[in-house]
Amino acid sequence: MSESFLPRQPLLAYLAGVYIFLIVTAFPIMTITCRNTLMKLVVPHRIPLVSSDITIHTFSFTAGIIAIIAIIAALASNIQVVLNFIAGTIGVLILLVIPPLFVISGRNILRKKFNINYKLNRYVTVIKSEIFPYC
Is 10 helix (H, G, I), strand (E, B) or coil? Predict the structure, then answer.
């Protein structure tokens, strides 16, 4: 904790510690969420029934995510930049990249396994795109 806050504003010094606690508690949650989502995309048949079970696949995915973060952290001079980068990247993956991949995957499964055209859905978008053929 920074000693420069203590003489003038002791409450501010303790509130600054909350941010550190938030980062420490959010990191495992982001790592586990990212691991589970990546496993659903890459090896869906290897996901354990209980999320807390440790298998070779869950361990390797978790170790890979942490190794990437550790390498970036070791090369960076300011750890706050690393935390912002990693949290932003994982947030973008979870919120903006992975859900559309699930939609595209689900549409492919419907077409290949059940011969169902997703365009028969009355809620499908009317926007046509050559760049994104599954939209």
Answer: helix
Cα(109)–Cα(88) distance, integer angstroms: 31
Q: Which domain holds residue 59?
A: 10-98
Residue 91 falls inside a structural domain: yes
pTM of the full predicted structure?
Answer: 0.49
Q: Does any domain span residue 135?
A: no
What single-letter DSSP state applies at residue 119?
Answer: G
- Number of domains within the chain: 1
List the pLDDT tens digit at each of the 135 positions of the chain. Answer: 555 555 566 676 677 777 777 778 888 888 888 888 888 888 888 888 887 788 898 999 999 988 988 888 788 888 787 778 778 888 888 888 888 888 888 888 888 999 888 778 777 777 777 666 655
